[in-house]
Structure to design on (448 residues):
């Protein structure tokens, strides 16, 4: 059994894993760059190792620095959190070559799902519904023209290696195809070192619905329902909720079963998220994330389970601690992502925190690595906290969110908190009537 786990990450997700370790009686090792010497994850972990300068390439993404830290501290396993090395197949291989355990899926599954074309082909073969589009990569502009005609406009060109909304371009008509095709290729090449692209039908007003799955690596898997993450800005999630306002119990059971069976068939191990666009009652697979998601707490909220604990369990060869029938939806959870960004343009706003007061009370969870006096370094992601609320139903969760937002104090920097106060005054948000374009339209209308 694991005695000590190294967490190859920072910020709130590092705390999340440290907390699970502490509750399981497992020692934790934090790694940090020089810019993070005073960070909360360093303080809360049992041990810490400085792994390099501020640049993540030389610290949080450095294989030798992280592997050496694990060896020096005698860690048994590495938890990657999300982002950084969490979906890096080569890293998993190196971890295992050093006799350490990687808390996550196999290198092979990460590789298959990390390439959007093979992911789509694999899912299609496993019976998961996919977005109509090109079968595989589209090598040149001439082929793109033919494929787009077949699918019908509008179409979206996607870099097969893309992520985080990069390498995705919309073409509403044939006139826009060439620019979209060339830009998606260029972005894929520049950001991910891979210019290959494919084409999909562009769905007009879908919701983003993702299904949480969990496998034991031995052919058994369960699903933990869905999350609705349709509120997005530049393809980045801003607010997530579970269960999805547009999904009923029958639909949940049906898509959940399809997803659980698919990952069971490939002996998937650990947490995974199968992302869909959902329109007119139909699901269309877009990608699978082979890691814990930022928004996992809303799922924990409605099922009352600890997903990180489960990840650690299955990584040691233990069975899942729940069966499908044990997983019953209880109430409603909503998460808002608090970024160190200045509205209305979401410009990064790092700096030193003055006073910090976290909200509390029944059904309120604040996952954040902030503290008063903490200096947010400018080198990393702008997410500084997640406020998660749970209520007996959606209305109660919304009132709790409103109440908790009123309690938070984060002084010294600008944050995205005012956005959520404004959203809670919107009828569409209160009724759950939004699709993936709702927020962009709302922001355009409000920022004039
Ligand atoms: P990434 O890996 O960059 O996050 P995804 O494939 O998950 O890319 O897509 C991110 C977002 O882009 C989706 O949540 C949705 O808002 C939009 N999107 C992706 N594919 C389509 C499509 N075929 N039609 C309409 N919108 C899409």
């Amino acid at each position: 059994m694991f005695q000590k786990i190294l967490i190859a990450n920072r910020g709130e997700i590092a705390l999340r894993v440290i907390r699970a370790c502490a509750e399981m009686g497992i020692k934790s090792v934090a790694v940090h760059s020089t810019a993070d010497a005073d960070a909360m994850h360093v303080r809360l972990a049992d041990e810490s190792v400085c792994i390099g300068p501020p640049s993540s390439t030389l610290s949080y993404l450095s294989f030798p620095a992280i592997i050496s830290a694990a060896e020096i501290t005698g860690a048994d396993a590495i938890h990657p959190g999300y982002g950084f090395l969490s979906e890096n197949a080569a890293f998993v291989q190196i971890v295992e070559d050093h006799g350490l355990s990687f808390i996550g899926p196999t290198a092979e599954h990460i590789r298959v799902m990390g390439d959007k074309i093979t992911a789509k082909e694999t899912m299609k073969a496993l019976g998961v519904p996919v977005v109509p589009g090109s079968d595989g990569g589209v090598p040149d502009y001439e082929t793109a023209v033919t494929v787009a005609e077949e699918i019908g406009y509008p179409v979206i060109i996607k870099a097969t290696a893309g992520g985080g909304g990069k390498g995705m371009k919309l073409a509403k008509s044939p006139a826009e195809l060439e620019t979209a095709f060339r830009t998606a290729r260029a972005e894929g090449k520049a950001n991910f070192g891979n210019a290959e692209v494919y084409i999909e039908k562009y769905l007009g007003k879908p919701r983003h619905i993702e299904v949480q799955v969990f496998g034991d690596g031995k052919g058994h898997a369960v699903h933990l329902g869905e999350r609705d993450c349709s509120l997005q800005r530049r393809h980045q999630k801003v607010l997530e909720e579970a269960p999805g306002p547009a999904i009923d119990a029958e639909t949940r059971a049906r898509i959940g079963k399809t997803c659980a069976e698919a990952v069971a068939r490939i002996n998937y191990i650990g947490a995974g998220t199968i992302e869909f666009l959902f329109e007119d009652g139909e699901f269309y697979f877009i990608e699978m994330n082979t890691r814990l998601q930022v928004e996992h707490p809303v799922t924990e909220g409605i099922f009352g389970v600890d997903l990180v604990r489960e990840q650690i369990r299955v990584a040691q060869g233990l069975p899942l601690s729940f069966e499908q029938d044990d997983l019953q939806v209880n109430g409603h959870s909503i998460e808002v992502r608090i970024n160190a960004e200045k509205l209305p343009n979401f410009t990064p706003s790092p700096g030193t925190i003055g006073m910090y007061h976290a909200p509390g009370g029944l059904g309120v969870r604040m996952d954040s690595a902030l503290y008063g006096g903490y200096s947010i370094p400018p080198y990393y992601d702008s997410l500084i906290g997640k406020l998660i609320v749970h209520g007996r139903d959606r209305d109660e969760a919304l009132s709790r969110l409103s109440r908790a937002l009123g309690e938070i104090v984060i002084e010294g920097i600008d944050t995205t908190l005012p956005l959520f106060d404004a959203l809670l005054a919107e009828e569409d948000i209160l009724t759950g009537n939004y699709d993936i374009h709702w927020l962009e339209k709302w922001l355009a209308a409000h920022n004039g």
